[in-house]
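Exercise 7.
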Amino acid sequence: MAFAGRMRSTLPVASKLISSESLATGSRSTPQKALLSPIFTDSEISRNFSTATEKKEVKVKVPLALFGGCGNYASALYVAAVKTNALDKVESELNDLVEATKKSPVFSQFTKDPSVPAKTRVGAIDDICIQAKLSDVTKNFLVTVAANGRLRYIDSIAKKFEELTMAHRGEVRAIVTTVIPIPPEEEKELKDALQDIIGHGKKVILEQKIDTSILGGLVVEFDRKVFDMSIKTRARQMERFLREPINIGNL
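Solution. The predicted structure, written as tokens, is:
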């Protein structure tokens, strides 16, 4: 149980660090919060994916601010899916498509080959969506992505979209990296500790990751924060400390 003891000894440190970070985050001004949680209205990109006709425009607040091309596509798809009340269905369909690219080398190559003419890409994706009986939102989105030559980024877009759907459901993914798998009882203990830190208004989804290169300890990642309590990092910090020149006059 030595490993469990080491893990438990690092949790109070993580709790203190995370709590102080949470206090700093809570002091953000209203303009800063607005930048972190933008509101998408009737934007051009989201209209391309939504087929619902509404007399009054529905404002959809994106739960996370995502940046870059993949983030923009994921945010636009989220808006369209929420407006049509099809978020879970669209998420499932998008994940199925990503899995298909992983299982079929031919399809994967097709999505990544920039030399395929746009007309061919769009026609093939349109046929696939019809045969798979995908929802109109997913179909329109994939056709738009294909037309814009962005199919090769579909995996990254899907991951960004998953971040949005998890935030929508109040879920927080916590990735814990250790050198050996965490036993079930200690996994529950760690999850409960993280739940207390994050707050009971959200649900922690714990994901274990094995990386022997960290040598020991653990690394916790969640909410775009990283708390590195690995032996590897501690060893590097000690090495830097030992390399610093000693001022004998201060001894």
